[in-house]
Amino acid sequence: MAPVPTSSIDRLVESVADRMAEVNALIASHAGSDVTMIPEVADHLISSGGKRIRPMLTLATARLFDYRGDGDVKLATAVEYMHTATLLHDDVVDDSAMRRGKPAARMIWGNQASVLVGDFLLGQAFKLMVDVGSLEALDVFSSAAATISEGEVRQLAGAKNLSVGEDHYMAVIDAKTAALFAAATAAGPIIARAASYRAPLESYGRNLGLAFQLIDDALDFGGDAATLGKNVGDDLREGKATLPVLLAYGRGSAEDRAFWERCIERSEVQDEDVLKARDLVLATGALADTQARAQEFADRALEDLKSVPPAPMRDALAEVVGFAVSRLH
Amino acid sequence: MAPVPTSSIDRLVESVADRMAEVNALIASHAGSDVTMIPEVADHLISSGGKRIRPMLTLATARLFDYRGDGDVKLATAVEYMHTATLLHDDVVDDSAMRRGKPAARMIWGNQASVLVGDFLLGQAFKLMVDVGSLEALDVFSSAAATISEGEVRQLAGAKNLSVGEDHYMAVIDAKTAALFAAATAAGPIIARAASYRAPLESYGRNLGLAFQLIDDALDFGGDAATLGKNVGDDLREGKATLPVLLAYGRGSAEDRAFWERCIERSEVQDEDVLKARDLVLATGALADTQARAQEFADRALEDLKSVPPAPMRDALAEVVGFAVSRLH
């Protein structure tokens, strides 16, 4: 048997495959409704080949403490619904045409359906959480829901603005991405009643989420539509002042700064600008520094795991960290 | 002292005024965020003079059983947040320009902010419910959240369609309006641990909500923008096949049916069509029958109240029913 690669989600996938099959069945059944537009819209996105890392993290952190019950499957499903609801609303907010290499739901069913089906999935997520009956888990997820949307509004308020600064950027990704990762990894120890491990695992999730988002934002200047399911330069076209942009802008010549201002603040982006932007984030070291920042959070996530008892599942969680930061290579 | 009118919310307003002051304070404080766009958008709608009937119903149904604690105030605030979130998303879905006599939030801050601030308020609502710690209340409200959005999608799927039928219409208003009224009136007995009164009060709320929505839909052909805060004919312009329309369409001549098909199914509505539509719903008895249907649900709501011990608060709840159906006169 070939050695398991150390920067992969394969071991995570394998070690929760049995529970994940139940999650996938529950995802499909609870997105049902006699209002046919609901399963149509939900299935379009749900079956579009997302990696489902967040629900796997909930299953994995529960199994780490030998959790027995069905709360892990329900909370994992709730996590994926919350994530899907966020994507549906995000695509409306960003006017996105594509999602995971397919037309965004809003391009087929319209913005209205995307808003309302997102709301429906959020409602279903809370019903599943109530079903589990853990007020602590409900607390974590309802706080995450408020934090995620607060982060999205913060991002919207700072859109097309190069003077927002790195703190703003970090606050945005901490809220819109890391909060749900943190809730997903807190859920396991909460339902498994492993209270003393909640803090390190929640911290692991947050740091992993930050590393993930930093690399995602770096990937807007690399990779390609086929592997990413989105187009290189999408963030640029949407006027998102991500970290690579903020760093390159800060380090740029007057001419470079004028270029970024035109692209980000005035939304005048031509196809050739995407290549030029890529050159600039490479030449100024902005991309390398974004990657280094991601590695810092990855290191913190690995440090968090040291507080957790050694187990094959812990190794699987460590490999996810490697996967998060290796995607740029 | 003048006699209390029997079709008014005055007595309800008076009998929960002390607790409502706390609700209003909580509404203002929890809509806060250092992301300034959030309180701006939220306050625009929250301070726009809605009657806040739903939170008052929660306070009243808790006080009916001498509830002591702060759960009533928190759940009442959650109810108003859920309602506000729904309005923000509704305005996006309906492309509405006005809400309560003011420009809709989306006209000032854009659809994106309306979607995201709605999400934020929904998250805050769930946080407040978790704070109260009643899994039964959480169950009622999370189910209502899913039901409301399912009803909105059902309405969207049947928009601009005159063949949907009365059952479709009733299913829509039961979900999009009555479900939250029912949750609001179930919340009181739930937190006051008056378990045997949950069913009749939940039924009271549902029937009251149905009566309310039927009269609202009738008011699209009467009243005026000043008293309603919306323009007469708005539903018509949005292609909504409400009960008065469905009834008038079913009873109309070939020429009348062609008129309705043009207005509702092809969205070709001129200003003079609003007057013609009004004539038709009056002449065919569609408006009177809609009102009669509302009265049926009002009667059922009053019947529900008979299961509740006599008390001044019960009388106040009965007067709200009278208020709901008297608005058309």
Automatic annotation (TrEMBL), chains A, B:
Identify the Pfam families for this entry. polyprenyl_synt
Name of this protein: Polyprenyl synthetase
What keyword terms does UniProt attach to this protein? Magnesium, Metal-binding, Transferase
Under the heading PANTHER family, the entry gives: ALL TRANS-POLYPRENYL-DIPHOSPHATE SYNTHASE PDSS1, GERANYLGERANYL PYROPHOSPHATE SYNTHASE
One BP term from GO: isoprenoid biosynthetic process
Cofactor(s) needed, names only, are:
Mg(2+)
Organism expressing this protein natively: Acuticoccus sediminis
UniProt family annotation: Belongs to the FPP/GGPP synthase family.
Show the GO MF annotations: metal ion binding; prenyltransferase activity
- Does the UniProt entry include the keyword Secreted? no
Would the keyword tRNA processing be found if you checked this record's keyword annotation? no
InterPro entries xrefs? Isoprenoid_synthase_dom_sf, Polyprenyl_synt, Polyprenyl_synt_CS
